[in-house]
Amino acid sequence: MDISLLMEYGWVLLILIGLEGILAADNALVIATMVKHLPEKQRKKALFYGLGGAFVFRFASLFVISYLVQIWQVQAIGALYLIGIAAYHLLKKHVLKPKLKKSHSTSKSSGFWMTVVKVELADIAFAVDSILAAVALAVMLPATSLPQIGGLDGGHFAVILAGGIIGLIIMRFAARYFVILLDKRPGLETAAYLIVGWVGVKLAVYTLDHPEVALLADGFAKSLTWKLIFWSVLLTIGAGGWFLSKEKTEPVAKVETALLK
Question: Which positions carry the signal peptide feature in this UniProt record (predicted)?
Fold first, then answer.
């Protein structure tokens, strides 16, 4: 790879790391809530088993999606999923949050293995979000001389794989630091899900540019014009989430920091 190609791949990887960090913090809070009723030793085991299953799922699903990613129907489903999940989380945070809190407070605690299953399912759902977002960002990168893996260029596969591994590391070890950041800058969570939705739009553009669909001008999805539009909007969302978010000085809730250690 030449320097310009390495810089472009490195830039996408940095975006993935930031996005994974914010989403992992939100996801870690959900998982922490699931295990908080267990004794400390069981709590750690439940997190270990759940995250271990997520690790296996991420690798398996990555190899599967590498064969399916060139099918425009799969691309369309992925685009709709990312846009839908972003809309759902934004509605949940800004519209449905009080109702969900009330509903959650009346739920019964689960036993150890049922909690493990719940953590596993939550991890899988989060993994799908992360993998699809990574794929949507990676497929627009220039091709490399690396051998193809499935239907993916070797460089694209490496970026997606790195993003998945980083996501798991952040989920387990660095999430509490992102939780503190989110507590200080709560607007970053909204910005993260807006970015997920915008990445879904990017995958939709890629789908509409597919030769079997051809609803956009040939090559538009990989054109400089679209790249400039995409990255300009993405950076605007990120900057807006940082600068428009009022910084809070209150400490993070005790239960959140304790469960994420």
Answer: none
In contact, 115 and 49? CB cutoff 8 Å: no
Q: Tell me, what DSSP letter sits at residue 212?
A: T
**pTM of the complete model beyond 0.90:** no
CA distances from 223 to 1, 5, 152, 218, 227 (A): 20, 16, 19, 9, 6
pLDDT band, very low/low/confident/very high, at 229 (cuts 50, 70, 90) = very high
Quick check: 196 and 204 in contact, CB under 8 A?
A: no
- For residues 47-71, give the mean pLDDT: 73
Residue partners of 120: CB distance under 8 A and separation at least 6? 49, 50, 53, 54
Q: What count of other Cβ atoms lies within 10 Å of the Cβ of residue 186?
A: 15
| CA-to-CA separations, 10 to 1, 115, 132, 247, in angstroms, rounded | 12, 37, 19, 29
Euclidean distance between CA atoms 109 and 98, whole angstroms:
20
Structure confidence at residue 62 (pLDDT): 75
Instruction: Assess whether pLDDT exceeds 80 at residue 85.
Output: yes
Share of the chain above pLDDT 90, in %: 3
